[in-house]
Amino acid sequence: xxxxxxxxxxxxxxxxxxxxxxxxxxxxxxxxxxxxxxxxxxxxxxxxxxxxxxxxxxxxxxxxxxxxxxxxxxxxxxxxxxxxxxxxxxxxxxxxxxxxxxxxxxxxxxxxxxxxxxxxxxxxxxxxxxxxxxxxxxxxxxxxxxxxxxxxxxxxxxxxxxxxxxxxxxxxxxxxxxxxxxxxxxxxxxxxxxxxxxxxxxxxxxxxxxxxxxxxxxxxxxxxxxxxxxxxxxxxxxxxxxxxxxxxxxxxxxxxxxxxxxxxxxxxxxxxxxxxxxxxxxxxxxxxxxxxxxxxxxxxxxxxxxxxxxxxxxxxxxxxxxxxxxxxxxxxxxxxxxxxxxxxxxxxxxxxxxxxxxxxxxxxxxxxxxxxxxxxxxxxxxxxxxxxxxxxxxxxxxxxxxxxxxxxxxxxxxxxxxxxx
Length: 421
Hints:
The protein is α/β, with parallel strands linked by helices. The protein has helices at 2-19, 23-37, 57-66, 76-86, 96-99, 103-127, 143-151, 167-178, 194-200, 219-226, 252-266, 279-292, 307-313, 324-328, 353-358, 370-378, 387-401, 408-420, and strands spanning 47-51, 71-74, 129-134, 156-159, 188-191, 211-213, 236-240, 271-275, 299-302, 314-318, 335-339, 361-364.
């Protein structure tokens, strides 16, 4: 409630100052708010302004921790509230912003851009902003900021947060971005792995030479944490939730959930975790479990359980093979279970079944083999990550995340330096 009051007051103040055209006061006020949100990091002569988005900031945290890059977070409530003052609800969306181009909407976008041209030079000067970082090239919140930035010599770098996907999705996005009838104000597009670069190269987003892959900066946290946490005393079985979200199916994920619940009830001596992305997904999952009348007393369902603790404690990790977290899990000394029966498709067929088993990766193409495979694994001891296991798993990692070697932040930082110098 208190937070809502603050947001209402913030919107009121920004609206009033905008209406009476106190641009200098607005720029000073916004500079103060950004400083307040980013304490103790203003000694740098060169900063990057980052548009806040859920689950994106962890990559920026890694960039800040493992390199000398200084990032200032622009709180999402500021960018959204400021946009709301000028832009109607009908265009405040990732795709709607670019598609709904009536004369009125274009006029309002221009008014917003002209307003930002009056306040951003002062904000950027006061905060030593040399570049803008965003999580996707077409989010509506940053479009006009990026256009103004481009005009005054402050480029926008995209760290594409949706870099990991499945073939059907990638084809759909490639088609979408290959038929743009508008230009996006970006200077560099950084993706996690070569597969995304390959299909992005075929689009009209930006020139091929402006698209690079670096790996995911957040994985540096996991790489360094994993150096000291790969214990062989493991008792945890983890299912990464892909039931509350529709990845590429609706039937198989429910079957996986039912089998996992059955496993937990038949083997109560082990610990069980279903890890969800956020609380909202946890709520959806709990509703689904209730509707199916499943008994989950032996299962912890949690969105806050740390991934580094999964790496440390998990004996078995189960999930959708094209989710980022399953690729990140490849660095754990855990057996990897990938359901690929029904309407989940095996998209890594170039990796042989023999290689899979040598890498302690189990693609389950028959529902009836799911519990049988896991029960057999539960009879074995945990294993260290031997060289041959790492080499096989790297084949999975490479396509989508390039490398998990503790240097992704460094590679991303180098891209930024080369752009700004």
